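Re: folding output
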Amino acid sequence: MDALVQKLDIKLRQWQPDIAEQVRQSVLEIIELADQDALDILRSRVVEQQVLDLIDEP
C-alpha cells in the first residue's frame, strides 16, 4: 500500500492541476463507496464498453 500511496503522490505532483484534482475526487468517491460496501454496484468501464460494442454490431 505504501508503494501505491507513493506512486499516487508522485503522479499528483506531475499531472496538470485540473487532472490531479479530478483524480483526487475520484479516489475520494471510491473510498466513500468502499466504506459503504457499495463498490459492487458500480459498472466497470470495460463492461460498459463491451455493452456499447455489442449495440454497435450490425
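--- second protein (sequence, then structure) ---
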Amino acid sequence: MFEAVLLGVGAGIISSFLTGPVFFSMIKTSIEKGFKAGFSLALGVIISDVILIAIVLFGSELFTYQASFDKYIGVIGGLFLLAVGIYYLFAAVEVKFDTQTLKKVSKRGYLLKGFLMCILTPSTLMFWVIVSSIISVKLNNKLDEKLFCFFIAMSTQLSIDGLKSYYASKLRHKIKEDKVKKLNKIAGVIIIFFAFWMIIKTYLKFYA
C-alpha cells in the first residue's frame, strides 16, 4: 500500500505540472480573474483526468498482467518522463499577464474550459496510458490498489492546483514572467527525479 501512495503522489505532482498550456492558463486565470476562476479551471482538469483514467484503467483490465512487463514499462516510462523533464528545463516560455481589475466570473465557464483544454490534449491521454501501465505492473495489477493509487494522484493534483491558484491570485501584483519560468524549471527537476527513480529501480530489480 505504501508503494501505491508513493506512486499516486508522484503521478499527481507530475500531472499537475505536465499539461503545459493548462498549467499556464491556470496561473494566468488566477492572476487575472482570481482564485475561484483558477480553481474552477483546475476542477475541470480533474474531471477530465478522472474520465481519461477510467477509460485507460478499465480498458487495461482486458490485458493479462505478466511480470516481464515490468522491465519494459519501467524503462520506457522513465525515458518518457525524462524527456518531459528536460523539455521543461530548457523550453522557452513567454507568458504575458493582464493585471486587469477582478470582476465577477463564471465558474462554470472556467470549469468547462479546464475540462476541454485537458481532454482535448493528446499528450494527457498518453500520459495516463503510461502511468496506468506503470502502476499496473508495480502493483501487480491489483484493481483495489490501483484505484487507491489514482485517488491519491487526483487528490495530490487538486491540492497542488488549488495552491497554485490561491497564491497566484494573492500574489498577482508581484508575479513576474521570470518567476513563472523558474517554476517551470522546478517542475522539470521534479519530473526528472521521478524518471531516474523509476529507471534505477527497474535496473536494480532486473539488470543488476
